[in-house]
Amino acid sequence: MRLFGYNFTVFLRKRRRFFLWRRYGISDVKIMIDICMKWSYNRSEVLLLWGSVKRWAGNGQEQRLAEF
């Protein structure tokens, strides 16, 4: 999956402990996922990615993630 010329899937596989929402904020991650869904041909991979983001959520983030 590529977004703005960057391969996010490889990035996330390499940096599994990297929490996207701690750096960008969870709403920004949701926007990124929406963009990926719109432009990606492999939507199942995007859904798997979003599932991973939800699983990685720490305490206090799960409530906000549930809104999505």
UniProtKB/TrEMBL annotation:
Name listed for the protein in its UniProt record: Uncharacterized protein
